[in-house]
Amino acid sequence: MGINLTEVIVEANDIFGDGVNLAARLQASAEPGGILLTAAVAEHVRTEKQLSLTDLGELKLKNMNRLVRAFGIAAAGRVQSPVAKLTALPDDRPSLIVLPFQLEPNSAEDAWFAEGIIEGIIHILSGIENLFVISRGTSLAYAGMAVDPRAVGRQLGVRYALSGVVQRAKGRLRVFTELSDASTGRLVRSDRRDGMLGDMFEMQDRIASEVVTAIAPAVRGRELARAMRKPPDSLTAYDLLLRALDLLYRLQPETFDRARGFLQQAMADDPGYGPAYSHAATWHMFRIGQGWSTNSAVDAEEARRCAAAALERDPNDPVALAIHGQMLSFTQRDYATALNFLDRAIAASPSCHMAWTLSSTTAGWIADGKRAVEHATRAMQLSPLDPFAFFTEHMLSQGHYINGDYQQAIAWGQRAVAHNSMLTSNLRTLAAALVAYGDLDAAREIARRILALDPNFSLMTFAARSPMSAKVLESHVPRLRAAGLPD
């Protein structure tokens, strides 16, 4: 049963309204014989001694575009599972719960420390695109229990469970974590973190960040492998997006158009799925930047259309905000408005590494090297093992180049090349940095690579279409000419 307290519309023998729909969704999510209440109802019955309430936190209910705070209810003396059995997420995104960590030895001081780590992990994970993270309130409902990840998977419909152990001994802390596949119970990844007792809050933040850094790529890689195994006729919009991103960021001419095909299919299958539109905008911008566009004006207009469509579907999505900002800089050189969108993206999700990376991009284009380096550094801290980290490394190269630190610019540019040698904007920055540093032979070798990838490249066309400000282009173009790129 699902119970909600709200105004309804009565017509003849029927009742209508959003409140009725919410009650129906709660009922569909309750376990057999169970009762789920909204927060409004819970406030009215909280003082009833005959009833026992369990705060389930914010739940994702089928066909609801917002999270709903829910409570489980049982009569006094009845044993109730900590959470109701929930349906699987309808949009097929990977979902994860961070279970309460075990304490060795069990102490109140260690308990709050462990809860702080969990809260930090949940906060950072919530900023990862296409990952649904179960709320802290639901996680803590499992405190003090021996939990089988498979049971949690059945109850919550989650795909992954993160568990851990906190050990304290002789002034040191050790934290073990395990990421499990909740459908099979199979271990996906295990890690250990050590530290000295000292600033507990700093240690909480560090451990939370390091744990997410380790598990996020594992989840993404496993999800891509899962999507690749699916037959074509069973792919969801999310599966199609995963396949598209895998091809998009390879930047291989022979597979680049296939990425667009997957994105178009995702948009056709689920017209309300915003991420497909955001990354379609990115596809068009890369097509221009790589020199592969046959009509850059058409691609720029498509990038604008797709970026706007993504925001229409979710105006608060940090990735949609960030890519919209990138589009404004890249296609219009509207830096002020772009930075406004990028700042909003970071405010919406301070742990969204893409927002920090793209903010660094625009900062570099307007010669704000300090901000460019700071924001790209933050992005690397959030996701250093990301398979698309080569773009963030390129932004670090660009930021150091703007600052005149050419050694660092070269080092980061070469690192980005090692991870993806196809990104022509990185090769241009690297060539210019090598010229500024005085290594003309190495710069000319990079210029030859650029022309191999973009045979029609010319400095005149580049300067006309580049998203860089005139202040940056003033020194950048002569250096590219010195590297051997044609006018």
Automatic annotation (TrEMBL):
Gene3D superfamilies: Nucleotide cyclase, Tetratricopeptide repeat domain. PROSITE patterns: GUANYLATE_CYCLASE_2. Keywords: Repeat, TPR repeat. Residues 1-27 form the Guanylate cyclase domain. One of its GO terms (molecular function) is adenylate cyclase activity. GO terms for biological process: cyclic nucleotide biosynthetic process; intracellular signal transduction. The keyword Repeat applies. SUPFAM superfamilies: Nucleotide cyclase (SSF55073), TPR-like (SSF48452). This is Guanylate cyclase domain-containing protein. It comes from Bradyrhizobium manausense.
